[in-house]
Specification:
By secondary structure, the protein is α/β, with parallel strands linked by helices. It is built from 14 helices and 15 strands. It has helices at 2-29, 51-64, 85-99, 110-123, 153-167, 180-195, 214-222, 235-246, 262-268, 270-273, 288-301, 307-326, 331-340, 389-392, and strands at 34-40, 68-69, 72-80, 103-106, 126-129, 146-148, 171-177, 199-206, 227-231, 254-256, 277-280, 352-353, 359-360, 363-368, 381-387. It has a six-stranded mixed sheet, sandwiched between helices. The chain has a four-stranded parallel sheet with strand order 8-7-9-10, with helices on both faces. The relative contact order is 0.13.
C-alpha cells in the first residue's frame, strides 16, 4: 500500500512538473514583443493603393488587439521595397535576423512577393500578402508560410473575362505591365476567354510606372479588338484609362482593367472612370460594419480605404487572434490556429485559409457610377453581384500547389 501511495505521489509530482514545465516554456515563448512588418510601396505607383494606408491599417489592428497579448507588446515596423527584389529581401532578412520580426504583411509587386515567399519559408516566419496578385503564390511556388489574403489574378482577371465574354465581348487586346503581375493577369484572363470561345487578338507590354501609353493604345486600336484590357495597376491603370478616354477609344471599344482600386477611381474622377466594371475584394459602403471601420480609417488618412488596406487590417488582426489563441508566437502553432479559425470580420464573413495558402472569401463584381448616380463623397460603386468564395477563386482541384497534391 505504501509503495502504491509513493507511486501515486510520484505520478502527481511528475504531472505537475510537466504542467508547470509547459507553462514555463509557453511563458518563455511569450517573452519579448510580437513584431509585425509592413513591406509596401511608399512612394511609387502603388503608394495610394497600399503604402502608408497599409501601415495605418496594421496599426489599427494592433490597437484593436489592445497593443499587447498577455504581457507581450505588439510592435510595428514598415519599409519601402522600391519595387526591387534585392532591396525587399535585404529588408526582410534584417527584420527577421536582427529585429526579430514574426510576420510580414502587404507587399505590392508580385516579384517582390515571390522573393519574400522563399525567404519566409527558409526563415520559418509568416507572410500575409494583401496586394500581390500573382497566382504563383498559391500555385507552383506556394508555401506553408505564405497566405494570399485579398485577391489574385484568377479572381480578378478570369472572373471579369467570364462576365464580359458571356455578354458577347469576345475579342480582346491586352496592354500588360511587364512583370509578374501583368503577365499573370493576362494569362488568367486569356485562359478564361479562350475556354468560352473568345479570342485574344494581340497584346503589348509596357514598363512599370509608364507615363505615356499613346503608342500602345494605337496598336490596340489597330487590332480591331472589341475589348481593350489594361493588365496593370496603380498609376499605370489611371494613366492608361485616362489616355484611352482622350484617344476616344471608349466610343468603339470596351475598356476594362482587371485590377482597380477605389483610390484609382478617386484619382480619375467619375466623369473619366464611369462605367468601368471589375472585381473588387472590399467596398467601404457595403454594409454597416464596412462603413464603421472605413470611417475610422478615413479620420486618420482622409481617404476611404482600398481593398488592400482593409485586407491588411483583416490579415494582421487574424494573425494576432491566432497568437492569442495559441498562447505562443511560434510560427507553426500560429499558422495552425490561423487555418483552424474562420476569418470573420468586416472584410470577410466565414473566410477560410486553404491548403494552397489562399484565403477564400466572397468577392464583388462592381461598376463605377456616373456622376449623376453618385449621391455623396466616395459613393463610387454599384455592386452588380457577389461572387461566392468557391466561385471567385481557382478551385483546389485545378491547383498546381505541391501542398495540395
Amino acid at each position: 500500500m505504501k509503495d502504491q501511495k509513493k507511486q501515486i505521489k510520484a505520478l502527481v509530482i511528475l504531472a505537475c512538473g510537466v504542467l508547470f514545465g509547459t507553462v514555463a516554456v509557453q511563458a518563455q515563448t511569450l517573452e519579448g514583443p510580437i513584431k509585425i512588418g509592413v513591406l509596401s510601396d511608399m512612394s511609387g505607383p502603388y503608394a495610394d493603393q497600399a503604402g502608408a494606408g497599409s501601415v495605418e491599417a496594421a496599426r489599427m489592428a494592433i490597437e484593436d488587439a489592445g497593443n499587447k497579448i498577455g504581457n507581450q507588446p505588439i510592435e510595428l515596423v514598415s519599409a519601402d521595397h522600391q519595387h526591387k527584389t534585392d532591396v525587399a529581401t535585404s529588408i526582410v532578412r534584417h527584420w527577421i535576423d536582427v529585429d526579430g520580426v514574426d510576420v510580414i504583411a502587404d507587399m505590392p509587386n508580385s516579384g517582390v512577393a515571390l522573393a519574400v515567399q522563399a525567404l519566409v519559408k527558409e526563415k520559418k516566419k509568416i507572410a500575409l500578402y494583401a496586394t500581390a496578385a500573382t497566382t504563383e503564390l498559391t500555385g507552383k511556388q506556394c508555401s506553408p508560410n505564405g497566405i494570399q489574403w485579398v485577391y489574385d489574378a484568377y479572381s480578378n482577371a478570369a472572373g471579369l473575362a467570364k462576365a464580359l465574354v458571356a455578354k458577347g465581348d469576345k475579342s480582346w487586346f491586352f496592354l500588360t505591365v511587364d512583370y509578374a503581375l501583368g503577365i499573370s493577369l493576362q494569362a488568367e484572363a486569356s485562359k478564361a476567354i479562350t475556354a468560352l470561345g473568345g479570342t485574344v487578338v494581340g497584346s503589348v507590354r509596357h514598363p512599370l510606372n509608364n507615363p505615356d501609353f499613346s503608342s500602345f493604345l494605337l496598336q490596340a486600336q489597330a487590332s480591331d479588338a472589341k475589348v481593350i484590357a489594361f493588365a496593370n495597376a496603380g498609376s499605370d491603370t489611371i494613366n492608361s484609362v485616362k489616355q484611352a478616354q482622350e484617344f476616344g477609344l471608349t466610343k468603339d471599344h470596351v475598356i476594362v482593367a482587371p485590377l482597380v482600386y477605389i483610390s484609382d477611381i478617386h484619382s480619375m474622377g467619375l466623369p473619366m472612370a464611369q462605367g468601368l466594371t471589375y472585381i473588387e475584394g472590399f467596398y467601404w459602403d457595403l454594409n454597416d460594419d464596412t462603413r464603421a471601420w472605413s470611417k475610422r480609417f478615413f479620420e486618420r488618412r482622409k481617404a476611404m480605404p482600398t481593398m488592400t488596406h482593409a485586407g491588411v487590417y483583416s490579415a494582421v488582426s487574424h494573425y494576432l487572434k491566432a497568437v492569442k489563441a495559441a498562447g505562443t508566437s511560434d510560427t507553426q502553432a500560429v499558422l495552425a490556429k490561423m487555418r483552424e479559425m474562420p476569418v470573420d470580420d468586416f472584410f470577410s464573413r466565414g473566410g477560410t485559409i486553404r491548403k494552397d495558402g489562399r484565403m477564400a472569401h466572397d468577392m464583388l463584381l462592381v461598376q463605377v457610377k456616373t456622376p449623376a448616380e453618385s449621391k455623396y463623397p466616395w459613393d463610387y460603386y454599384k455592386v452588380l453581384a457577389t461572387l461566392p468564395a468557391d466561385q471567385a477563386f481557382r478551385p483546389l482541384s485545378e491547383s498546381e500547389c505541391p501542398l495540395v497534391k
